Amino acid sequence: MSRLIVVSNRVNPPGGKGEESVGGLAMALAAALREYSGIWFGWSGRTTPMFTGQLAMRRVEGVTVATVDLEQSDYDEYYNGYANKTLWPLFHYRVDLTAYDRTFDEGYQRVNRRFAETLRPLIEPDDLIWVHDYHLIPMARELRRLGVKNRIGFFLHIPWPAHQLMVTLPSHKALVEALFDYDLVGFQTPEYVTAFQEYVAAEAGGEILAEDRVKAFGRTVQTGAFPIGVDAQDFAEMVASERAAKTYDRMAAHTVFRKLIIGVDRLDYSKGLEERFLGFERFLADNPDLRRQVLMVQVAPVSRESVSSYQEIRGRLDALSGRINGEHADLDWNPLRCVNRNYRRDELAGLYRAAKVGLVTPLRDGMNLVAKEYVAAQDPKDPGVLILSRFAGSANQLPAALIVNPNSPEEISEALKRALTMPLAERIERWRALFSNVQGEDVGAWRDAFVGALAGDDRFHEASALAS
Fold it and tell me: Does domain 4-229+443-467 have CATH number 3.60.10.10?
């Protein structure tokens, strides 16, 4: 098969099972690159006084990694600016937090051009190029301008917004036009494919040629839904590791006579943490007979600290958790604990295994792999219950979870009570249905479906049929 070149904003080289927890994108790409030979290219995470385009290349766990440093202005305008202050809030339906600044757009275009110029010498004629996420939408356009004829695919890890929201973005048509320099554009769910096609038809004067093809700007692009998964078998096996076992024992001892409710999310307004806390507060108020029987732990590593909206959410969560504990705590017990730090993947596996309830309630999420990891980590003989937001992409695949509207404290409260009192037979039945999907539509299936479609493999049509 052709060599695969993966392009992403950050390059987190795949490490061993003892590595700290990293995002779903990094874990999925690591799995893809272990299967296919090739290169992982992107930003090193470091800044330099002046951009040089100097490549740093190394081999990590059998993967060739190529990274480049960015100028501080690139970081400010491209990453903190257009990516995280403009596209991220807009694509997560937070128009009120979306910042529009011409310098952000200029930095975004500049970095994509620099990435393309740096990557170009590494590309061989038969390579397949797989570009990831909202940071790099113009990447194919810049590569085409440099004469690259290879097949290039793009996968969006976050939601694609309704076209009524998309049009609030200045130069929205130019951003969408850049996607038509790709051969394949992939989304997490059929809903996001439809939203993209509706924009093309309504705003770009385009035409939907078939279920998986749209035409606009004089070009045709293939589209499809490719729901990302986790390495279910690897995660299930990780539960048996020494560190996972120690974490499990520690939490089991700490919650003796109590049931652990776990939430694991990056500190972000899209994750619905405030709404989740309010739902838990309602549960404590509505169920005084159950409240001393539970402990909720929210793991929320801090990210993007230089963006003001992230600083504000941390303050609001601190105040809210303080209020909940002040109202409901006893001398020997606080009902809610919020921890702002990262944990290793094996530690998270043990934490998930110890939790009787996995509470995953984002306001809007491309997929949400925490839900799938929680399912993979459960004890088949005594599994916990997954409570999942209807607005997470994974809700399409995991209907056996307790599906809730995260904006409703009452729904969260009722789901918590149901989960905590659910009979063993029902818990097992639901878990089996969940695990069947997590295992069957894992990261390998996602990888093979997308790369197969990009290479022109007929398996794409089968994968698209399954996804829809």
Answer: no
